[in-house]
Design a protein that fits this description.
Elements (H helix, E strand, L loop, with lengths): L3 E7 L6 H13 L4 E7 L3 H8 L3 E4 L7 H11 L3 E3 L2 H5 L3 H12 L3
Parallel strand pairs: 1-2, 1-3, 3-4
Helix pairs in contact: 1-5
């Protein structure tokens, strides 16, 4: 079982799949055992209930949902952030992973 779980959410859960792969590679290089997955924004509540992630990161394209999602994550005690647009556009998995680690206190 993974030490930590990182959940990414975007419009359909598809555009973040490459970023998930790059984050997994970066985690492996750092010797971290993380479960990293992407989901559609519409499934955030179900995935939080099922997976109990340690952090939730929203894709920039769903940034408008941050306030409503924050209510869910606050209730669940999960840190929330929006992925930096430049990191997302460049698919910088290493930097996005570092951001997640900071939020989880696992640097």
């Amino acid at each position: 079982m993974a030490d930590k779980t990182i959940m990414l959410a975007c419009s359909a859960g598809m555009s973040t799949s490459l970023l998930v792969s790059k984050m997994q590679n970066a985690a492996k290089e750092k010797g971290k055992d993380y479960k990293i997955f992407a989901t559609a924004a519409s499934g955030i509540q179900d995935e939080i209930d099922k997976e109990h992630p340690d952090v939730l990161m929203l894709g920039p394209q769903v940034q408008y949902m941050e306030d409503s999602v924050k209510k869910i994550t606050d209730e669940a005690g999960i840190p929330l952030t929006v992925i930096n647009m430049q990191d997302y556009g460049m698919m910088n998995g290493e930097h996005v992973l570092e951001t997640a680690q900071e939020l989880m206190g696992d640097k």
